[in-house]
Amino acid sequence: MSDVRISDQALSDASAFLVAARRDARQHLNSRPRGHFPSITGIGETISAFLEGLHTSADALSDAAHTADQALSALREEAAAIDSQLAGAVNAHPSGDRVGR
């Protein structure tokens, strides 16, 4: 079995990236026009459908970034809890005495 090592800094950086990606997706989502675009050539419906697809995609990406950020936060909390439990187990004898006393 191979060792998987992910530093706290890498998790922090990934979380910050996801938060920024979500913010950017939301900003771009709000800056795109919505509605029907009449045109002489009849391409207005195609443009409207394309822009609606952009809105849907940006919204889905934003939600995915939020979900991934929540998962990373939970992972960091679990890792901290495991570290704390491991430190407690290593520093204590079965009798409850601390090691090194």
Largest sheet: none
Mean pLDDT: 81
Structural Rg:
24 Å
- Shape label: rod-shaped
Helix content: over 70%
Q: Number of helix segments?
A: 2
Task: Give the beta-strand count.
Answer: 0
**Which structural class best describes the helix and strand composition?**
mainly alpha
Strand content: under 5%
Through-space gap between termini: 37 Å
Are there runs of 5+ residues with pLDDT below 50, and where?
Answer: none
Helix and strand string, N-terminal first?
Answer: HH
Question: What do these coordinates show?
Answer:
It is a single chain. The chain is about 70% helix and about 0% strand. The protein is an all-alpha fold and about 100 residues long. It has one domain (about 10-90). The longest helix is centred in the middle third of the chain and has 47 residues, at about 45-90. The protein is rod-shaped and about 85 Å long.
Compact overview of the structure:
70% of the residues lie in helices and 0% in strands. The protein is mostly helical and 101 residues long. Helix 1 packs antiparallel against helix 2.
List keywords for this structure.
rod-shaped, mainly alpha, 70% helix
Task: Annotate the secondary structure layout.
Elements: H1 8-31, H2 44-90
